């Protein structure tokens, strides 16, 4: 880059050097011609004119010419540089500020004192930089706002061009791609194929992902001039939930039917039991031991059917809850007598780990008893000889969480997904309705239930109930 | 070709080089930091070049050369050894100074470290006075040589060097550094040429040593004292140079160099600590090469011309003899190298005068000085101080090397202990102020005694020894007292 200073300085220096060279050469050549002329005109006086004297005089002349030239050059250079510097420095500062501005530093300012055109230029530049900074700040603020809006949306947004380039993506899209790389592949594939016109602009896409699962992606494309906006979201979970809901609805229908059926079975069953009791009371002669055993076996089976029906009815038609503040410790103590024989059988200890101050749960007391009975009974069944079962409680921000933990055999991983299915049991002689009843009552009391279990290490059942007094129990959660 | 005319041609070329290099430095300067410390951005090449060129002054060439011509190798003990010892101390200083302080000027250290504005102003004043005299010495040295070799009036010669010094300083440290780089090359090449020529004239170094060992002539025509045989190769010149003075000169030359503001500023202006260290190490290596050639050149000159024609002072010996025996081109080269050495030292000192005056004195009196105003004030100060030195050089001091020694002695006696203790120890402000004051006063009083009484015992001791001892004693005493008071 040629500096403005060089445009000023070099010509001046060339002029000075050239002028001085000309002066020097002229003085030298002129002196030489003068002496030659002198020698030729006065040959008779050459005896008095010494050659060396003339040469030395000439050299002296040259020496002083150069000395004067050096001093002149130094002095004039100094003056020239000062002159050029006064012009160049503000321009250099100006150029540096422009350079800073070009690099994106909008705080760049020119700082020098001038009252001439360069001063006007400085003021204009500073005003312009100020305005530019304001505009850029506005643009940045808007961009930031847009970005915030984009990032606030919980479905993925991609802006892509016709030549398959992604121009912009929001946070949700990036998160989806990070957590599920297969969706990133889908998006690339989609962007590559969409401009060809082979894909509809709205719909649901299925995409195979790792682990043999299928991902469901809901998408919509909006053209914007040369580009397209693709809005998409991973609806795999919703799809699963939908399928689950359908399954639950079917189960609910079956449950309703089963409840009706159970209700219908109960009366004849009572009748059959009464008939057998009559037959037994007749005390016919020849009644032998076999008859007695058969009668008691009939009563046992009738009783078992009755229990199943009762559980089924509890599960299918739980009573409406009447919530109140219930002490968990007191409830555990109330049910303890019923489960002591079972505990003693396996030499187990039932412990309560409750926080200081409050151990209350907002729930129907009878439901809580039923829930705890079922869970503790399950825990006893799953436990080995010795050890303990722990009932604990802790408060979160808006929930009270109860945990029933045992150190028993645990639930195999493959069974975990089926534990709430009616009639599914891993205990010999179990009805497979205990946990279903617990789940049904928990939901009825607006709670949540989840289970953590490791095979051979034990199981923890968590129940979370709202702490709030204001929740209405009128809503039924199916 | 006529010798003076050829020298003028060399001069003309040198002028063009100076104009170009100073100009490019001038336009690198945007801020006070650029002007004072070259934006703390100098790389190893530029740092080494400026360190070397600043180190080399007229005293190094004329004074040392003349001294070795008369007293032989004792000159190495008297000056070169102390100088190099000082350089080692500078290496030790460089790391912590760079790490812990961001200085603009040398006196600012005393304000930052000891929070003492008084000390800052006093050090600035010492620098201004010392350097004005030292620049005078440089101008004089060059003026003498130029008027002798070119056969031009002394006034014209000193006016020329004055212009060179002003021109190369106006642009700030960038200008000084860029011209120093050119000067360093000229100094290095010309003294290699000088040494080589004299060695060849003598038929080799071994021959110089052999002949110098036998020499027993008076060094200067009309001198009553003869150089004793073997004296030129003896470190005490067979009794002509008292050991006490030679050994105590370390406290003037060595410690003075270690506390010299010029080198502290060179450390500060290097781009980082590693560059500052490399600068000193490389420069000392190159200097040892140059000194080797100067020592053998001066000894060889003594062997070639055992007795110099009468001269006014020691500084005139080398140019006078060179003018007699060396070819015109070598005279021209040596002449340019002498101006290079003078300009490179003087411009650095002139810049320090200006920065100390504006930053350490004026800024403490007037709080608000705008950057542009500060730069202009510095340039005005440069012009004033330069002109003052020019005026003083019309009636210059007697011996360059002794005068130089006095200036370094002032720094070793006053600022050495506060500077090094400030960097390496956790001493108090009062100890530093006491050390500074007592060292300076002792040095000046002893120098005055030496000058006025002319007692032999006193003149055989370098005043730097007493100044430094007083400074150290005062420092230690005040520190000990303050520690006792704490206990």
Automatic annotation (TrEMBL), chain A:
It is an enzyme of class 2 (transferase). One of its GO terms (molecular function) is phosphorelay sensor kinase activity. InterPro entries: HAMP_dom (IPR003660), HATPase_C_sf (IPR036890), HATPase_dom (IPR003594), His_kinase_dom (IPR005467), HisK_dim/P_dom (IPR003661), HisK_dim/P_sf (IPR036097), HssS/ArlS-like (IPR050398), Sig_transdc_His_kin-like_C (IPR004358). It comes from the Bacteria. Gene3D superfamilies: 1.10.287.130, 6.10.340.10, Histidine kinase-like ATPase, C-terminal domain. Residues 260-469 form the Histidine kinase domain. It holds the Pfam family HATPase_c. Residues 85-137 form the HAMP domain. Its main location: membrane. Its EC number is 2.7.13.3. The chain crosses the membrane at residues 6-29, 64-88. The keyword Phosphoprotein applies. One of its GO terms (cellular component) is plasma membrane. It is a multi-pass membrane protein. Keywords: ATP-binding, Cell membrane, Kinase, Membrane, Nucleotide-binding, Phosphoprotein, Transferase, Transmembrane, Transmembrane helix, Two-component regulatory system. This is histidine kinase. It comes from Thermosediminibacter oceani (strain ATCC BAA-1034 / DSM 16646 / JW/IW-1228P). The lineage of its organism: Bacteria, Bacillati, Bacillota, Clostridia, Thermosediminibacterales.
From TrEMBL, chain B:
It comes from the Bacteria. It is a multi-pass membrane protein. It catalyses: L-proline(in) + Na(+)(in) = L-proline(out) + Na(+)(out). The keyword Transport applies. GO terms for molecular function: symporter activity. Keywords: Cell membrane, Ion transport, Membrane, Sodium, Sodium transport, Symport, Transmembrane, Transmembrane helix, Transport. One of its GO terms (cellular component) is plasma membrane. Gene3D superfamilies: Sodium/glucose cotransporter. PROSITE patterns: NA_SOLUT_SYMP_3 (PS50283). It is found in: Cell membrane. One of its GO terms (biological process) is sodium ion transport. Its main location: membrane. The chain crosses the membrane at residues 6-23, 44-70, 76-93, 114-134, 154-174, 181-200, 250-268, 280-305, 329-354, 375-394, 406-425, 432-449, 461-478. Pfam families: SSF. The keyword Nucleus does not apply. Belongs to the sodium:solute symporter (SSF) (TC 2.A.21) family. This is Na+/solute symporter. It comes from Thermosediminibacter oceani (strain ATCC BAA-1034 / DSM 16646 / JW/IW-1228P). The lineage of its organism: Bacteria, Bacillati, Bacillota, Clostridia, Thermosediminibacterales.
